Amino acid sequence: MPILASIESCTGCSACANICPKNAIRMIADKEGFSQPVVDDDKCVNCGLCERTCPALSANLPWGTSTPKVNAGWHNLDRRISSSGGMFSAFARGILSEGGSVFGASLNSDLLCRHIEIQTIGDLQLLRGSKYLQSEIGLIFRTIKTRLEDRKKVLFCGTPCQVSGLRKFLKKDYENLLTIDLACHGVPSNAVFKSYIDKLQKSLDLSPGNQKIQGFEFRRRDGWGMFPSYSVDGSRFTPVYGSNALYMKAFDKSALFRKSCYSCSYAKIPRIGDITLADFWGIGRHGFSFKYDTMNGVSLVLANTEKGLNAIKSLDEESFVEERTLDEALIENHNLTNASPCHPQRDEIIRDFLNEQMSLKKIGKKYGLTNRNLKEIIKEYSSKLGLFSFVKRIYNKVKSL
Ligand SMILES: Cc1cc2nc3c(=O)[nH]c(=O)nc-3n(C[C@H](O)[C@H](O)[C@H](O)COP(=O)(O)OP(=O)(O)OC[C@H]3O[C@@H](n4cnc5c(N)ncnc54)[C@H](O)[C@@H]3O)c2cc1C
Ligand code: SF4
Ligand code: SF4
Ligand code: SF4
Predict the structure, then answer these.
(1) Which of 150, 180, 209, 275 is the most exposed place for a label (fewest CB within 10 A)?
(2) Taking Cα atoms as reference points, which of 201, 193, 190, 274 lies closest to residue 232?
(3) Residue 271: CB within 6 Å of ligand 4?
């Protein structure tokens, strides 16, 4: 029987399940809802392929440069409907317009997050926006390999551990593959998110079966750094505050993550993807001036490889990029170079999220997750009064003095 990564180091990347020639590995949710590989003894022939492929056991891959080219950027058509500046969509547009395939994370109608393939620009809306939970890979690495061998252009975007899993699975670099990794704070499980949605449904007192939460945005996309919001019709989104926003409060405080996230081996420079995308938090505020309005979001774009550099050069005319420095990029972006520290009550908080009897209010109060500082109170009230953009503009001005 193969010995795969321990529960502390397994990232759930699914490379082992994808590589197994006997389909002997299934990814099954553990008691916290995180997918773990489980080997079927009856099917396994002990070939050892899964062990050799697992990035948590041996990460022998070429990484990007330790001096990446740093850019700030956005895409004019995607910026206001994406999480930061819409640079993911900018790269995706290039691949799709050449008949290629783009693979990324999508929430389905049951609000389950998993990676899917899209082949048209019209379907980009299925992938746009950060879903702050683990996206299930399923067996999609096999599809990616087929596309690559059919000589199609492929873009894969995911967390760094997923990019690493894909690269180990493929065993070699393909010139028609572009990989994008994200700066990564950590991932909660689909089960915890589902439980939160059920509790939110109750807390908002939406009549069951009548008004069901059908859509969720982890952060509003029409302003940089806005509140999470839900939708009952899939199109209009309503922001949530206080204990109703508990999921994102617990996410920010690193209370819900997979165990491997707290010792993440990808939180460093050099990076594993050709490109790294993140929010360019603090741009223009640390002694390096930036003459453009940042209110609608700015992506941080690191070109880690020659392929990454070429992808930036090939962006369309609706894309804006400006070179910046790595020093500025790292000042407010802790997770590019550091794993998130584990919340001391992480296990109990996850248990309570999964407990049907615990309401969002009770959990928030029990762990002090809804306590707010002055900045958070101002953010919340200015949003409720429709003054968020105005207040943020003043805040940015004062911070950059
Ligand atoms: C779990 C997670 C943690 C993050 N943590 C940080 C952080 O600490 N600091 C920071 O600066 N940025 C972080 N990001 C990245 C940030 O939220 C934006 O995704 C990034 O700035 C790119 O934004 P965009 O506007 O270019 O594209 P968007 O359109 O917003 O990004 C969409 C792309 O992100 C991918 N994606 C979305 N959700 C997931 C997921 N759950 N798993 C894998 N891929 C996903 C999709 O495949 C899609 O390709 C995180 C993203 C995720 C998903
Ligand atoms: S050892 Fe081989 S057959 Fe067994 S689970 Fe791993 S890859 Fe599959
Ligand atoms: S290949 Fe990925 S999912 Fe499989 S054991 Fe290793 S880290 Fe876990
Ligand atoms: S923090 Fe690290 S281990 Fe966790 S999902 Fe992100 S890249 Fe993977």
Answers:
(1) 209
(2) 201
(3) no
**Would the CB of 360 count as within 6 Å of ligand 4?**
no
Distance 261 CA to ligand 4 centre (A): 5
What is the helix, strand, coil percentage profile of the chain, to 5?
Answer: 35, 15, 50
State how far the Cα of 71 lies from the Cα of 178, in Å rounded to an integer: 18
- 11: phi then psi, degrees, rounded to nearest 5: -90, -10
Separation of CA 337 and ligand 4 centre (Å) = 12
The residue whose CA is least distant from atom 3 of ligand 2 is 44
Give the residue from 320, 336, 352 where a domain finishes: 336
Identify whether residues 86 and 149 lie together within a single domain.
yes
Evaluate: CB of 54 within 6 angstroms of ligand 3: yes
pLDDT, tens digit (0-9, with 9 covering 90-100), for 37-94: 999 999 999 999 999 999 999 977 899 999 999 999 999 999 988 989 999 999 999 9
- If one residue of 11, 107, 108, 130 were mutated to test the ligand 1 pocket, choosing by the most ligand atoms within 8 A of its CB, it would be 130
Q: What domain range is 114 assigned to?
A: 69-187+257-336
Total domain count for the chain? Answer: 2
